Amino acid sequence: TNNTTASTSADITQRALTVAAAGSNKVYDGNTTATVSLSDNRVAGDTLTASSTAANFADKNAGLAKAVSVTGISISGTDAANYTNNTTASTSADITRAPITNVTGITADNKVIDGTTAATLNTGGAGYAGIIAGDVLNVASATGNFDTPAVGSAKTVFISDIALGGVDAGNYTVVNNTATTTADIINVSAQIPLPPRSTFQAAGLAVRPNISASGLNVADANALLESAPTASGGCEAAVATGEKAASDCVSVTTVREATDQERGVVSVALAGAVTKGGMGFQFSLPAGLLALVAASDAPVQATTLVGKPLPAWLRYDPGSRSFVATAVPAGALPLQILVNVGSRSAVVTISAMPGDAQPQRRVIVDRSPANRSGKAG
């Protein structure tokens, strides 16, 4: 006979459980906190729960496939005692840029009419809808343009191409990169250096109270021209498409000659069709500066009064020693420019003559036919 049973002993060692982590993408929120899901290689049917105490990205910044560290991994449940487990894991996930829905608070400077719609923007007070507290953003660049180049108060300024700067700019994206504000385009006023008081008195004009010692507006410059005892002459008729156009002309008039000590003052007056938007015209340098160029071959430099480039529709042509305007935008006049030749300079005011009448009394320094085709000639 024999026994049919027996007993002995042996060990069941704990199974090594590998807990893995998978990271979840998130939108930038200014911190390193990550969300992960855990999985493991448990025996089928066993009851376990894996958890962790922390999961963190390497830094807070937006980026793709960023490293995530998981710590404090532990297991619990009915079969937990049958396993040993790793306590850390690593994975990766994306932090996508947070949206800045719009940028507010950008303002525009008022400006004197310069024939363009360009606006100077002030971005120091900009606000950012959606910025995380403590983050630093600024406006790296933006473009501003008035609705038209014409004079006006509280004109709409369209702001476009807003781009972010600052240490946290890489964590955000601008949803709406446009905005609007308002500013004024001021008429040519208090910009032309005032001739000596005696000049006004000799012309029979009083020095008006609203004119400072540093400025003379267009109306007063024209009044000085019309009332000066030496004033004479008128516009020369333009010829267009083979027919006389007696009301179309460009006249260049010197109010004050340029010297090495004092800026000259020049008026360029337009009459007739050339004053309409989309037309073109041409005028020579005033005689004094023209003579200086001829004598010394000094370069001619022309800018707006604030030192900016001339508007795209106006250029100086060194070959003809004249200024050429093509397709002038409506509302772009009057315009003041500063012309420098060597050590001398002159403020040139380009404006339409009042009404359609030709001036009867002007000091004509140079006269150039107008071009009615819209092209410079």
Uncertain spans, ≥5 residues at pLDDT below 50?
Answer: 190-247, 356-377
- The residue-averaged pLDDT reads 79
Determine the number of helices (DSSP H or I, runs of at least 4 residues): 3
Rounded to an integer in angstroms, the radius of gyration calculated over CA atoms is 38 Å
The SS-based structural class is mainly beta
What is the terminal-to-terminal distance? 132 Å
Helix content: under 10%
Beta strand %: 35-45%
**Arrangement of strands in the largest sheet:** 26-29-30-24-23-31
Number of strands: 31
Characterize the biggest β-sheet: 6 strands, mixed
Which outline best applies? Answer: rod-shaped
What can be said about this structure in brief?
This protein has a six-stranded mixed β-sheet with strand order 26-29-30-24-23-31. Strands 13-20-18-17-14 form a five-stranded mixed β-sheet, with no helix packed on it. It has a four-stranded mixed β-sheet with strand order 3-10-7-6, with no helix packed on it. The chain has three helices and 31 strands. Helices cover 7% and strands 42% of the residues.
Structure description:
By secondary structure, the protein is mainly beta. It has a six-stranded mixed sheet with strand order 26-29-30-24-23-31. Strands 13-20-18-17-14 form a five-stranded mixed sheet, with no helix packed on it. The longest helix is centred in the middle third of the chain and has 10 residues. The radius of gyration is 38 Å and the shape is rod-shaped.
